[in-house]
Write a structure and sequence with these properties.
The protein has 266 residues and is mainly alpha-helical. The chain has helices at residues 2-21, 23-31, 35-47, 57-74, 78-88, 91-95, 101-111, 113-129, 140-166, 175-188, 200-207, 211-214, 216-222, 229-263.
Amino acid sequence: MMATLRALPTLTRIGLVEALAYRAEMVVWLLTTTMPLVMLGLWTSVADEAPFRAWATRDFVAYYLVVLIVRNLTSNWVAWQMSEEIRTGTVAARLLRPLHPFTGYLGTHLGAVPLRALAVAPVIAIVFASSARGVLVTDGAHLALVAAALIGAWLLTFGVFLCLGALAFFLDKTLGIIEVYFGVFAILSGYLVPLPLLPGWMQDLAAVLPFRSMLGDPVAIVIGRVPDATAAARLVALQWAWAAALLALAAWLWRAGVRRYEAFGG
């Protein structure tokens, strides 16, 4: 554990350098996450006529801009990276290193966070310059919970993508599964439509799955849709529980996958 903690700052710096070296690819990646802007245009055109289920134009502006920010700050591409390394056999080099491979992936993707923050900085400026500023939380308790929710969302997303990437040990083509995952995520996380506006049965389904903890709940806390700090704290606690569970599942899948990989002479 101590060796991991000592190595993590160095790995994070390496990750930042790699992110800067491949900044063009990152820009392309970020451009693929602009669907909230499309939905913003659709919903504000509806809300301009009259508020929809107590959501006015200002609420939709705040929601989708914050979705864009949270999504870009907390996402990563480790599932694609792992799938490619396992498919091509280059993962073997990671297995020979003294640190657990998850530590290397963690450093790489933590290192990209500052560049992601820089990329969404203009969106943050727009939020504060627009009418959306009026719905943002400002009290200390909620601001602390926003910080915890962003960290938890990053860890939870990282855990989910580690699980998806580790499936490459068992399946030939995992990219199709990742695409299916993203389709489900887009609906049940609040990425496309705010969760309170979904049909009742879909809200019930979203309540028992981790997707809302990855995006919808952090956004709801930021824009003041969870005014009770105790209720917001429960959402953050649930989010961190999901993150711990998914990271544990990823570790189990990795161990089982490596045993299978070695058994086949990898």
